[in-house]
Amino acid sequence: MNHYTPKNFMLTQTVGFALVKARNLIVAEMDAALKDLDITSQQMGILLSLRQGSATTPFELSKLLGIDTGLMTRMLDKLEAKDLLERSRDAEDRRVVNLTLTEKGVEVAAQIPEIAPDVLNARLRKFTKAEFEELNRLLRKFSGD
């Protein structure tokens, strides 16, 4: 079924526009909340992924977070400059770069779960439990998960 046609298409009325607007709101609010930790919401994703063991290489992080490799490299450079993570060559395959959180990175990552839920809960405050679950279901369906 086609939901859009040339006759009914209006950019500001599309699902894509609404998703981008929602994402931008969350990013701005999350960035403000994380300011005291001196990280951004994108950097938060990297730190939490490393903390949880969801990814251990730049390639895995790029794939998991949907960030192109060039931007990923720049973000890793910033996190390394802040002494939040370390890069090391894999012992078995020198082409592979492994990432680990530093002690400071572990401390910063541990504080994120105290901050991030408040930001998301504030944005979701008008949703019922059923609406929240339906939103998650629909977003997973939209993403193909």
From TrEMBL:
Matching PROSITE patterns: HTH_MARR_2
GO terms, molecular function: DNA binding; DNA-binding transcription factor activity
UniProt KW keywords: DNA-binding, Transcription, Transcription regulation
Segments forming domain HTH marR-type: 8-144
Domain of life of the source: Bacteria
PANTHER family for the chain: TRANSCRIPTIONAL REGULATOR, MARR, TRANSCRIPTIONAL REPRESSOR OF EMRAB OPERON
Official protein name in the record: MarR family transcriptional regulator
Organism: Trinickia terrae
